[in-house]
Amino acid sequence: MEDELRCPVCCRFFTKPVLMPCSHSLCVACALSSQEPAQNLLPQSMSSACSESDSGTVISDHTSLLDFPDIDKLSIVSETDSGVVCNSRPSSYVGTPSVANIFLQSLQSCSYGIKCSVCERLVFLDENGALSLPTNRVLEAIVNKYQNQSKKVEIKCERCLADHRTATAMCEQCEVFFCDICRDQCHPMEGAYAKHNLVDPTQGDIILKYKRKNSKEHKCPEHPTETLAMFCLSCRLPVCCTCAGDGRHMTHEVQPLPAMCKAQKSELSQNLQALSEKAKSGTEFIQRLKKMADSVSGNCAEFEKTVIAQCDALIEVIKQRKAELLENVAEEKALKVRSLKEQVSDCTALLQRTTGLLQFCIEVLKESDSTSFLQVSSGLVSRVATADANFNKEMELAPRVSPEFELTLDNTPAIHAIQNMSFFQMKDGIIAPGQPVIIPEECSCENNSVTIAWAPQIGSVVEAYTLELDDGNGGDFRVVYVGREMICTVDGLHFNSIYNARVKAHNHAGESEYSDIISLQTAEGRDVRDLSSFDWYELGGILERLSKV
Fold first, then answer.
1. How far, in Å, CA of 312 to CA of 309, rounded?
2. What number of other Cβ atoms are within 10 A of residue 223's Cβ?
3. Which strands make up the sheet holding 122-125, listed edge to edge?
4. What is residue 147's three-state secondary structure?
5. Among 351, 337, 343, which Cα is nearest to 283's?
6. Which has fewest Cβ within 10 Å: 157, 328, 364, 526?
7. Does the global pTM surpass 0.70?
8. Residue 520: beta bridge partners?
9. 456: helix, strand or coil
10. In this structure, what DSSP letter does residue 479 have?
């Protein structure tokens, strides 16, 4: 979870982190260096509007906040400071109040502004600037704990009289560190000490720090004698009973601080449980992906043997093609391995971010200070819920490619088709053939017959072709040939007629689209259909001469 503990500005571990209204945190020094005068962060049109407001000019109702999506407008017109911090609010308005008027008048009390480096939302602050932001005590405690664990400070026994030996345990009830010898002598696990809990010294040191920190009651900044015991749901802030009863939170909905803390922890725990299950399934999926990547090489070796065996059985013309096919296999292998490794890398990165968030949230859940916890609980609940909702989509719980080489070679076509030979998908991966292409230079007409030749689309698996011709007068097409050949001659057509031809390919997966139509004209000659041009007188003369003979 180290990325969760680093400032997005300086990229170092947080130092005195402050909590932004958008739930992101910054080092107080980074926040101070990032703040600018409020006027510098406003668009030019908004700045001019503010100037007009200062001069007493009534702002037009046409001024719209929709032009400034980075600004949190909710806090301008409500008590919930969710993005803009203002010291004063307008008590009266001249004319009809509008959101734009309220917004601009509220900004007059804002001296500084910060643009969040993570979500790029604008946060406007009073004259104290970034120092008015609350300290993220939960994050600060987790960072200190993480750094202390990294340093591995050696803790000494508190009961050794002469040489202080290294402590090996700490009693939670006695709050004393013991070495092995002093533990056996002074703290035997029997009698009154039987129910005492011994923990690791490092963990014990953390427990003591938490106890000392939590022993201090948090006081209300407005009523120093009052303890923060309630939580305002409107302002999302802990308040004292006086603030809730008579102060500015009097009209707001408030809840007891412990109950609110318990509810938020419960909601966060439920979301973490759901996200944890998905992280577990993601880990298992990554392991399967790694195994699949390892099996690609073995499957590739078997497939290469099949390709070589088939290629060796072919005639000499296939030798050159054999090298090309093996190259395609190597490319397919590299593509599969690369794709699977990329998916493993993507899924690992997502899982690492999710695991970091899980660990961070678990540490937050250990926070016993309700006030500190509630500072970050809403943001964490939202983040965990978003991560949970997007986990399956981002994880892609299905391999991008199959480790199997579902390819084969079709070595049955004629020799002239070898130049176009390529792999095709096997099993359920087979697809319908592509659109065939008629070859005009190989098509011809002779007397009342036509010859049509065509070729398949490169890479298509074709089981048969269907050739169709119309009736020579632009009528409907009819089937004249079905088979595996790629050339066909049709006889018995009408003379001096233009025929349109088209062809389609098909296999058990489906049919292709029809090819482009080609038009062919038969030779000129007498057609029995044209009786108007027949010489009946000549026929009569022939019959008369025959009768005399």
1. 5
2. 16
3. 36-37, 112-115, 122-125
4. helix
5. 351
6. 526
7. no
8. 499
9. coil
10. E
Query: Which of helix, strand or coil describes residue 363?
Result: helix
Do residues 204 and 214 make contact, with C-beta atoms less than 8 angstroms apart?
no
Bigger pLDDT: 446 or 77? Answer: 446
- The answer, yes or no, to whether residue 169 has pLDDT greater than 50, is yes
Q: Is 218 helix (H, G, I), strand (E, B) or coil?
A: coil
Integer angstrom CA distances of residue 115 from 71, 133, 173, 350: 9, 14, 47, 27
User: Euclidean distance between the first and final Cα of the chain, in Å?
Assistant: 118
Q: Which helix (H) or strand (E) holds 370?
A: helix 370-395
Instruction: Give the lowest-confidence range in 145-149, 264-268, 448-452, 463-467.
Output: 145-149
Question: Whats the size of the chain, residue-wise?
Answer: 549
* CB 365 within 8 Å of CB 268: yes
91 sits in which H/E element: none
CA distance 251 to 244: 8
- What is the enclosing helix (H) or strand (E) of 488? strand 487-490
**Which of 92-106, 365-379, 403-417 has the highest average model confidence (pLDDT)?**
365-379
> pLDDT digits over 13-52, tens only?
888 888 888 888 888 888 888 888 877 776 655 555 555 5
Percent composition of the chain: helix, strand, coil (DSSP 3-state, to 5): 45, 15, 40
- The predicted structure's pLDDT at residue 539: 57
Helix (H) or strand (E) holding 311: helix 257-312
Cβ neighbour number for residue 56 with a 10 Å cutoff: 7
- The whole-number average pLDDT for the span 350-378 is 88
Task: Say what the pLDDT of residue 259 is.
Answer: 86
* Nearest CA-CA partner of 19 in 10, 11, 27: 27
Radius of gyration of the chain (CA): 42
Measured CA distances, 471 to 476, 493, 519 (Å): 7, 9, 12
Query: What are the residue ranges of helices labelled H in 470-519?
Result: none
Which amino acid belongs to residue 70?
D
Nearest to 106 by CA among 122, 121, 91: 91
Q: Tell me the C-alpha distance between 121 and 116, whole Å.
A: 5
Q: 273-287, 342-356, 414-428: lowest mean pLDDT where?
A: 414-428
- For 498-524, the pLDDT digits (tens) are 999 999 998 888 899 999 999 999 988
Does residue 540 surpass a pLDDT of 90? no
| DSSP states of 108-142 | TT--EEEE-TTT--EEEE-TTGGGGSPB-HHHHHH
Q: Where residue 124 falls among pLDDT bands split at 50, 70, 90?
A: confident
Q: Which residues contact 141 (CB under 8 A, 6 or more apart)?
A: 210, 213, 367, 372
Q: Is 398 left (phi over 0), alpha (psi -120 to 50) or beta?
A: beta
- Contact assessment for residue 487 and residue 452, using Cβ atoms and an 8 Å cutoff: yes
